[in-house]
Amino acid sequence: MAAIAAANVDSLASYGGDPLTQRLTQVAKEVFETDLVIFPVATGTAANALALSQLAPPYGAIYCHEAAHIVTDECGAPEFFTGGAKLIGLPAADGRISAGQIASAIAFANEMGVHHVMPGAISITQATEWGTVYDNAQVAAIAEVARANHLQVHMDGARFANALVHLGCSPAQATWKSGVDVLSFGATKNGALCAEAVIFFNPQQCVDFDRRRKRAGHLWSKLRFLSAQLLAYLDKDLWLANARNANQTAQRMAQGLRQISGVHLVHPVQANEVFVAMPEKLVAALEGAGFGFYRWPLCARKDDVAIRLVTSYATRDGEIDAFLSAARRLA
Amino acid sequence: MAAIAAANVDSLASYGGDPLTQRLTQVAKEVFETDLVIFPVATGTAANALALSQLAPPYGAIYCHEAAHIVTDECGAPEFFTGGAKLIGLPAADGRISAGQIASAIAFANEMGVHHVMPGAISITQATEWGTVYDNAQVAAIAEVARANHLQVHMDGARFANALVHLGCSPAQATWKSGVDVLSFGATKNGALCAEAVIFFNPQQCVDFDRRRKRAGHLWSKLRFLSAQLLAYLDKDLWLANARNANQTAQRMAQGLRQISGVHLVHPVQANEVFVAMPEKLVAALEGAGFGFYRWPLCARKDDVAIRLVTSYATRDGEIDAFLSAARRLA
Amino acid sequence: MAAIAAANVDSLASYGGDPLTQRLTQVAKEVFETDLVIFPVATGTAANALALSQLAPPYGAIYCHEAAHIVTDECGAPEFFTGGAKLIGLPAADGRISAGQIASAIAFANEMGVHHVMPGAISITQATEWGTVYDNAQVAAIAEVARANHLQVHMDGARFANALVHLGCSPAQATWKSGVDVLSFGATKNGALCAEAVIFFNPQQCVDFDRRRKRAGHLWSKLRFLSAQLLAYLDKDLWLANARNANQTAQRMAQGLRQISGVHLVHPVQANEVFVAMPEKLVAALEGAGFGFYRWPLCARKDDVAIRLVTSYATRDGEIDAFLSAARRLA
Amino acid sequence: MAAIAAANVDSLASYGGDPLTQRLTQVAKEVFETDLVIFPVATGTAANALALSQLAPPYGAIYCHEAAHIVTDECGAPEFFTGGAKLIGLPAADGRISAGQIASAIAFANEMGVHHVMPGAISITQATEWGTVYDNAQVAAIAEVARANHLQVHMDGARFANALVHLGCSPAQATWKSGVDVLSFGATKNGALCAEAVIFFNPQQCVDFDRRRKRAGHLWSKLRFLSAQLLAYLDKDLWLANARNANQTAQRMAQGLRQISGVHLVHPVQANEVFVAMPEKLVAALEGAGFGFYRWPLCARKDDVAIRLVTSYATRDGEIDAFLSAARRLA
Fold first, then answer.
1. What is the number of domains present in chain A?
2. pTM score, whole prediction
3. pLDDT tens readout for residues D275-312
4. Do residues D161 and D245 both lie within one domain?
5. Which of A42, A96, B200, D39 has its CA 20 to 30 A from that of D271?
């Protein structure tokens, strides 16, 4: 917030010509240890859809998880921005699609030829929709399939910081060194007011991307207010500290829930999301006790209802403990 | 062919103002026993994609079978024509999706609200991609779900004549009386040179459809050449006679194959397609003997390869018998 | 800025369910003295393109000035968001298109029928690109043509506050009472950090608009930060005070320039833009003296170069006087 | 027609794998004396829009005449197929835009940068909408501007045969030797049932074009019926003979009309269209006498009405003379 206020200097150049945006590029290069081009935008949907429109043609297929945010939560933004590319959703119980699945889907497309959408791009979500995290070898294997088929790899990193903290490696290792071409770098879920960025690790690949951003209404005249947020986010590893708190409180939650009878973790907890199945009665009782969360029908199991619990940079241990204590009491 | 030649009269009005096109409308009304509007086009992909673009908004979901022609064989035409609507492919072993599946998918969308594509339309294929046929009650049940959710039902009738012959009911019963709103009425696969038609059973629903056809490049200046084909196709029930031959030869094929050891029908044969699983060795031997057909990986089973055999208006019993005899010999 | 900081309360409902956004709706209704629906977005391009996509079909024509922002400055955003509608740019020396011009263009389209894009919407810019202002009677005449042809009227109000101050009437009078259906209500150019809004004066007309905003990536999860800006903007008529300063300093500039020999005002100055033609030599001298402005080739006259001078909420008389004094000296 | 009937052999490979389509490619190479790729389609709108979608990005500008068929007569097909590119219509009294005009428009776009659509392609119509013909030097000058700006040149050749007969040069000279990259090669207006073709003179430029054709519904399963028409059209210079008749009867018409008092040719007659201005009273009298033609408001002059008279491959001298005689009598 202070960073935004400090950016409130009116005589600065507009549309990204300002010094803050230039510094952001410099800082991002340092954080990712490589040459890159970074485009700040205000929402994750914009970041993902713009990135994909750069990678896949209108007659292209984009391979991703069947429950990826781009499939279920963006109201068709990728189809809109790409001009009609088709998202091919692949199943994967824990949220991580595999290189083999993608290779099979590409082989099918190639066999179909002109009648089918052409292999266009691959998009993986890190951390995944189910709160799991691809390890770098899995990403690299997918990237190898991509290379073999002349495709690019997009990473939806709305929760990239949480994944990175889990992996414990460098940002470079988790992205371009593992074969990622374009990253949707999320900050909003991890503390920013409204700031995401599309990062191209190969500057050659962003030709005309600025046109796409402009015609989608995502080029701010006072772009410095986005850049200022991202600078503050990256400064002194604030982003990693925020993510660390979120991941740790998620672990605390998971460990506590695991011990309650009738409550089951649906997926391994590796980032800041806890998917947990429990009897409808317990869910209703928790709601009755004033706790707010989403029911998650996609993850429901047998007779149990699934709910999603999300921790954040601001979650405190006490809040977790209060929830656990209530759950134990109501179970 | 004779019908096309007879239409070769140059002074007729262009863009559908000719008497042949007017007569086609009249004949179609008689065949389907209702008021309707019919738009001839040259390809099935155009018919389907134009029809869907009329029913679903760009931010809409179109519910259909996961292996529907519109999903796998039209290179993204529905996404293109609708401006980015999303095809939600539902699984169904025999090719027929159910009212219940669709209702669940709609319920999920409604729960997701603005973040998800909005329920937009339902598309069923008759006969299905797997050569099976919806009975009228199944269609009606789907239409009921559609009505309850203010959606329209599209029927991809590339093989509509084959389905109708199997059902043994009137064209009206198989379509609007069972709740179908728009029909892609196929003729090309059943004998025409290049003729399909989009039929709206509710004339109110085709507002501006002529604009969509024009801007997609599917309004012929000499439209009478399409209308002439469709008139000849409908004349004296030629279309049904053609389909009857195709269905009967498909049955002959199915019955013959069923008796060969190691050969299994993958789906019930109800129209003019026979999907059959057999050892790779036999498939290769048949290919070696000069027979041409597609391998169909989507239908493969265990160690067997699946192939698709399609009969037509022109298939003769002798051709079937020759194939069967070779298969028996090579098995 | 203070308003944004005050909105930094993390527990508020996301995606517009927060109390600030609700209050914004209430305040907007009071300001415009009518029922309405308001959708905050971050950029003017988004506001315009989203609004037009709601009004015109993909096969529609949008009538506007040939140099409108939507034509020349949005990199094709309206075409993108509408799915391909065509902007029909009409000439008008002072930036104001007339009801008669629009009526003629519509008549031409109607005569062409299905071969031409269908009349879809009308978009006028207030204040115009040339710094002039439509009076309410002109707007009403255009709206009458719209009504007669079942079209809607969009007003691009990136500089609406400046126009309103010039008109000296109520916001209601300048918009819906004169027949405007949808307003792009701009705040960024007049002091906000990044805040515009699409306002529908007829709530019936915004069906599914929330889907369009979402799929374009323009629905903020923390929407309250946009609403907070707009609330502060409207509070105690801050927006009008800001615009008044901009208009007055523009007048001061215009009156000063008018007295310099060889310098000519290109258009009447009614808002906060001054278009002025002068010899290339003087332009270069001003640039050499450190003044920054855009050359404006579209307004160039004979041997003279045209430049655009824009004042803002923050412009001070002293700055104007410094420019005038330099111009007098260098002329 | 005979050619189509002869193509009615059902066992041929589908989707263009047939020998007729292969032969068409061979014949086209001979006619144009170069390597090329030819894609038959059924309508001129499809040919133009598909070609342009290959040349211009969604955020591109396409420079053309303000009254080009692609601007006024295709219901937005180019915008649809390109995903929203903008047609920049340039004025030119006789239908021929100039290299200088295009260069200026490109310079403006470049000055505007990311805010404006990016120069994307150039499209010229040969013969033009006003029945005039670009000479080869004019085309070459335009192509030079294209090259200098890394753009491609598209020629809408719906009346290419008529232009060629007027020019009296080789097809090669009129196209790629003068810098044309892609030609919409029209046959329908000059005798075919429904046949146009997109011809790429640089085979490198048609990458994925087959996908675009397929997803637009313009890939015929029985493509040989289109190829057969084009082969017959090109055989023994039938296309040139047809065009010659059309041009000659147009000349006869023009020369006759020129001698009638109160009647004025609006444009030079160089192909098969005669635009002629005459008093409303005479127009009405001709209509009353049973002659059919379009009024052409775009070409109207002062108090006179303009009409368009089009001759064809089938027009006979006697028909012209009958019209002239009536016009003389009624004038």
1. 2
2. 0.95
3. 999 999 999 999 999 998 988 877 777 788 999 999 99
4. no
5. D39
